Amino acid sequence: MDFMKSLRAQNVRVDVIVTSPPYNINKEYGSYKDNKERNDYKKWLFHIAKLSYSILKENGSFFLNIGRTPSDPMLPFEVAYMFKHAGYELQNTIHWIKSISN
Question: Is 41 part of a structural domain of the chain?
Answer without folding.
Answer: yes
